[in-house]
Design brief:
By secondary structure, this protein is α+β, with helices and mostly antiparallel strands. The strands form 8 sheets. The protein has an 8-stranded mixed β-sheet with strand order 5-4-8-2-1-11-14-13, covered by helices on one side. Strands 16, 17, 18, 19, 20 and 21 form a 6-stranded mixed β-sheet that branches. α6 packs across α8, α15 packs parallel to α17 and α23 packs parallel to α26.
Length: about 950
């Protein structure tokens, strides 16, 4: 622990004296030529933010900074700091006023303005009339005695003090940690993204102001200080033997948020590595951590060198840095690393993890984000999207994306399909809008990499970076650079413009559906586009007017190696076009293989049959696994959306009995879950039998060769398969769960904890006895406050959501709603309702419970409008059949005028159910017929399962 060297009041007096003398002695020297001020040495962007920042008021363009000289003195023990900043500025217009960013918690001690007018040689002091802090904005306004003419240069100086952040690791913060020897250590560091520099010193805190910095900082002798650039010199401090002052070299021009500083008890991991290449990079790479954590960081040096080499070769634009420090900082709690230029600060666990993706992502920001910077926060999502794409592509190049189980981009792509196919995207979570917009742009970069070719794509991005280094950029800069490269390499027709293509995707929170109808006799195909919607009704305003610029990439049965994936044609903003050169009628085609662009594809019935037959043949693996997954995913989702017969969709799953690649299975579990929630209770038995027959061979094969060190994808695939089979009543799984559960039931003090994994609870509650379920209910009722409430929440969720027998569901509703058991809160009841809507048995039982106990429930809960409204919603909104509509309509008529605050809710429920009834009338007979035939063809394969 750094000890107090000087008493506070004495030190503060000396601080003011030295600052005052320094200001008087500065005379006409510009700040980059002045000797640094010696301050008395002390005592021992996420995207949601970016969305808000885009609305921020910009500073008036009266002056622009050209250089910063920043001197900092942190008082680590007291979490205070003092400092002085001198900013070289140039006047862009005549003005007698200056505006500078400064957080309200920063106290300005002294300020000074000097200017050199265009017609004079000497600097003159400009008297400050008033210094005013805007009460609502972090802006300080200096009103000057005289007007300074345009073209003048000068210096703006502030002496200031402030408090280090201790409740979070942002801005200029202090945190502590305990060593293995139980000794408390202090850490001071910065996280200035997105606009936290103003919380450390007065500055022009906007990304467009890129200037060099010279930083000096006082630190305890027994700690080290790291910043964006190496230390130029270290000075002793008179009368303070335990502290020194580090003066860092001048930085390249950079935005304020990329300024970085770490003061901590750190040790370097191994020796430095130097990366050098023939394009001008020569940079020392170092890894730092606390001494006792270095062992956990073994191998990071090699990873850092590998990733840096890949990125340097990708960009082909050398970084203007001599050194890059990567730090595993103890007790750093930032959501994301602090990716300062030349200094990246990670959480310890993030840097010691085995994967490459996050390290690649943060190193990418050294080029894209620091070297060139988004001109304003409205372009931050574009920056993140390009970094995300490059990081994923690089991680795949290094180790096939093993930390993502090879699933990128499926994981982000599927969520995008589901969100943008809603009638009201982002209606529940508004913050999701920025993330999905970023994900869509990331997939656009992937699309351009495929359609332009990797070499042309890289060439365009390299040209973009070269033209914008030390500057800012907008989206147009990227699109125009890609377009120029594409035209030069003849990769796009002249009428196609990359910017126009990109905007057609970015400006809509939607995705297209491409319909392909082959005309077999003429060997052509008619291609049309429309808005892709899963939610019903399909009544989105302006849907008919929406169109996209779409690359139509077609592969045929004999070109599945995807060596030639140039678009056959670009579908402009028109709705229809004809593609020629189709194969013979006995050969299939695939449009948009490998999910080259984010859109699903529907075909005519004949082509779907050809695809299904091929996938069931021995030639299946000639088709890449991502394309196999796409066909499966598209078929089921198009059927769900009402665009394709479910008979076709189910036929597309027949090949799965021989399929073992985890990427192909990835969408299956989501599809089972979605359809299981959608179909009526009358088909649940048949559907569950289909699921059992589908999954059993895969699980039995995976269960044979379970190993400790097997690939994560295999563990996850086994876990998913087992979970769904357990839900479907797989006897070995249920018996295993009951054996573990019985240990808990035999425990002397069962409320002290549940000695079994969560995976065993749901199968017991679904397929086990009423006694086992009642035991679980008592554990929730008697749950001690000393245990983690998350364990109680999970137990309650499974008690309500897993059973499909009416008796169990009615019992929990009786206990919570009618008996008024005081152990259940209103939040608990919300959770129970939510879980019951997940299955037809659940919401049907909840409906009958409401209907049978109407008078009591209305009297007890109708005045508690949130709970009452939620009950009516959960009990009435999930039906999908004519029988369900009759039930809800009868309830409405019987109790008309009695619903109170929920009147509009049940009316809305009936409107929605009518839409679902239409869907069910069209699809349930098809599903029923297909399942009947499938089960008849697979008799005798279902004896390993319990059945309701």
């Amino acid at each position: 622990m750094v000890q107090k060297l000087i008493k506070g009041h004495t030190m503060f007096g000396r601080f003011l004296l030295i600052v005052s003398l320094s200001l008087r002695m500065a005379n006409s020297m510009p700040p980059d030529k002045q000797a640094p001020i010696h301050i008395i040495r002390a005592r021992s962007i996420d995207l949601n933010n970016a969305h808000g920042l885009a609305m921020e008021t910009r500073l008036d363009k009266v002056v622009e900074p050209t250089f910063y000289r920043l001197d900092l003195e942190p008082y680590l023990e007291d979490a205070l700091f003092k400092g002085h900043v001198a900013i070289n500025i140039t006047w862009l217009k005549d003005s007698n006023e200056l505006n500078v960013h400064c957080a309200h918690e920063i106290e300005i001690l002294e300020s000074e303005v000097k200017a050199q007018f265009p017609d004079r040689k000497e600097l003159q002091e400009i008297t400050i009339d008033t210094s005013t802090m805007d009460p609502k904005k972090p802006i300080i306004t200096l009103s000057l005695k005289k007007t300074v003419p345009k073209g003048s240069t000068g210096v703006l100086k502030f002496s200031f003090k402030g408090n280090m952040e201790t409740g979070s690791t942002e801005a200029f913060f202090k945190t502590t940690y305990m060593t293995d020897q139980e000794i408390e250590r202090t850490v001071a560091a910065t996280q200035l993204r997105p606009n936290n520099a103003r919380r450390m010193f007065p500055c022009f805190d906007e990304p467009g102001y890129k200037t060099p910095f010279e930083l000096s900082v006082v630190r305890p002798k027994n700690m080290i200080a790291l910043s964006n650039v190496p230390v130029a010199r270290t000075e002793k401090i008179p009368d303070e033997p335990d502290a020194v002052c580090d003066h860092f070299e001048k930085t390249p021009p950079m935005s304020t948020f990329t300024l970085g500083l770490v003061i901590a008890d750190l040790k370097q991991l191994g020796e430095s590595d130097t990366y050098k290449d023939d394009i001008g990079n020569e940079i020392e790479l170092r890894v730092w951590g606390r001494p006792e954590y270095l062992e956990a960081l073994e191998g990071v040096n090699e990873k850092l060198m590998r990733v840096f080499k890949e990125l340097a070769q990708f960009w082909q634009v050398p970084l203007p840095l001599r050194r890059l420090d990567v730090v595993a900082l103890p007790n750093y709690q930032g959501v994301k690393p602090a990716d300062n230029w030349g200094l990246i600060v990670f959480r310890e666990s993030d840097l010691s993890s085995r994967g490459y993706f996050q390290l690649t992502q943060e190193l990418s920001y050294q080029w894209l984000g620091a070297f060139t910077t988004p001109a304003w926060w409205s372009d931050a999502h574009l920056n993140k999207a390009l970094v995300g794409y490059i990081a994923a592509a690089t991680a795949f190049k290094i180790n096939d994306g093993s930390e993502m189980e090879g699933k990128w981009p499926l994981t982000v792509l599927y969520s995008l399909y589901y969100e943008f196919s809603k009638r009201y995207p982002h209606s529940r979570i508004t913050g999701m809008k920025q993330e999905t917009a970023c994900t869509k742009i990331e997939l656009l970069f992937r699309m351009f990499n495929y359609t332009l070719g990797n070499d042309t794509f890289k060439k365009g991005l390299q040209r973009f970076l070269e033209s914008r280094k030390f500057k800012t950029f907008s989206g147009d800069d990227i699109w125009n650079a890609l377009n120029t490269a594409a035209l030069e390499d003849n990769k796009i027709p002249k009428e196609v413009d990359i910017k126009t293509v990109a905007k057609s995707w970015i400006n809509k929170d939607r995705l297209p559906l491409i319909n392909v109808r082959r005309q077999y006799d003429s060997k052509t195909a008619l291609v049309t586009q429309k808005l892709y919607l899963r939610d019903r009704p399909h009544d989105v305003p302006e849907a008919a007017k929406m169109s996209w610029w779409v690359p139509i990439v077609v592969v045929q049965e004999d070109t599945l190696d995807l060596k030639n994936i140039k678009p056959a044609i670009w579908m402009k903003d028109n709705k229809e076009l004809k593609v020629s050169s189709m194969p013979d009628k006995d050969k299939f085609i695939v449009v948009n293989p490998e999910e080259i662009a984010p859109y699903p594809v529907n075909y005519d019935q004949e082509n779907w049959i050809l695809l299904s037959n091929f996938l069931q043949s021995d030639k299946r693996q000639q088709m890449p696994e991502l394309t196999r997954a796409k066909l499966l995913h598209d078929a089921w989702n198009l059927a769900y959306a009402g665009e394709l017969s479910f008979a076709t969709a189910f036929n597309m799953t027949l090949f799965l009995k021989n399929e073992r690649h985890h990427l192909v299975w990835d969408p299956v579990f989501t599809m089972i879950d979605h359809l299981g929630r959608q179909i009526c209770q009358c088909l649940q038995g048949k559907f569950q039998a289909y699921v059992r027959i589908l999954l059993s061979p895969l699980y039995e094969e995976l269960a044979k060769d379970e190993k400790e060190d097997e690939e994560p994808w295999k563990k996850n695939l086994r876990s998913f398969t087992k979970s769904f089979l357990c839900k479907a009543g797989y006897k070995p799984c249920v018996r295993e769960a009951q054996e573990h559960y019985n240990i808990w039931m035999q425990a002397k003090n069962p409320d002290e904890g549940n000695p079994l994994a969560n995976q065993y609870i749901c199968p017991v509650f679904r397929w086990g006895t009423q006694k086992e379920w009642e035991f679980g209910l008592q554990r929730v009722i008697n749950f001690p406050s000393s245990r983690k409430q998350s364990e109680r929440t999970y137990l309650l969720k499974t008690l309500a959501g897993c059973p499909e027998t009416e008796a169990k569901i009615v019992k929990i509703l009786n206990v919570t709603m009618l008996e008024g058991n005081g152990n259940f809160s209103e939040t608990d009841m919300f959770l129970i309702f939510s879980m019951l809507t997940g299955s037809s048995a659940g919401y049907t039982t909840l409906f009958h419970f409401l209907s049978n106990n109407w008078d009591v429930l209305k009297e007890r809960y109708s005045s508690r409008t949130n709970l009452w409204d939620n009950l009516i919603t959960s009990a009435t909104s999930a039906f999908t059949t004519e029988e369900g509509l009759d039930l809800v309509s009868h309830l409405y008529v019987t109790h008309q005028g009695e619903f109170g605050s929920a009147e509009h809710i049940i009316e809305k429920s009936m409107r929605n159910i009518r839409e679902e009834v239409t869907w069910s009338a069209e699809n349930l007979p098809v599903i029923d017929a297909w399942l009947e035939k499938y089960l008849a063809d697979n008799k005798g394969k279902d004896n390993q399962f319990y059945q309701h």
